[in-house]
Specification:
The protein is built from no helices and eleven strands. The protein has 119 residues and is mostly beta strands. The strands form two sheets. Strands 2, 4, 5, 6, 9, 10 and 11 form a seven-stranded mixed beta sheet that branches. A four-stranded antiparallel beta sheet has the order 1-3-8-7, with no helix packed on it.
Length: 119
């Protein structure tokens, strides 16, 4: 069975940093592109960023570009989201997702971890 489990969420003040982790199991991790998404209460889920299967290519939403960094450690089956200069508008449940190389969709999703940024 495939499972993605996020961790590292919590509460931080404006301007602070958090590092989220997403541990994958039940899949061949280095065959999957990985993405991060977030959803705030009353809002639609939005794309945050993604990283290619080997980690060479990354892409970010404009709202987080320059502040967030995605990385991965394929030996640990883990993808990370380093979040710096956090703002209250970053408050959301953050989820990771995996999509097989060559696929146009993300087949697997984690249940998310809460990030709260206080002003």
């Amino acid at each position: 069975q495939v499972q993605l489990v996020e961790s590292g969420g919590g509460m931080v003040q404006t301007g602070g940093s958090l590092r989220l982790s997403c541990k994958a199991s039940g899949l061949t991790f280095n065959m999957y592109d990985m993405g991060w998404f977030r959803q705030a209460p009353g809002k639609e889920r939005e794309f945050v960023g993604r990283i290619s299967w080997g980690g060479a290519r990354t892409s970010y939403a404009d709202s987080v570009k320059g502040r967030f960094t995605i990385s991965r450690d394929n030996a640990k089956n883990t993808v990370y989201l380093q979040m710096n200069s956090l703002k209250p508008e970053d408050t959301a449940v953050y989820s990771c997702a995996g999509g097989l190389r060559g696929s146009s969709t993300y087949a697997y999703w984690g249940q998310g971890t809460q990030v709260t940024v206080s002003s």
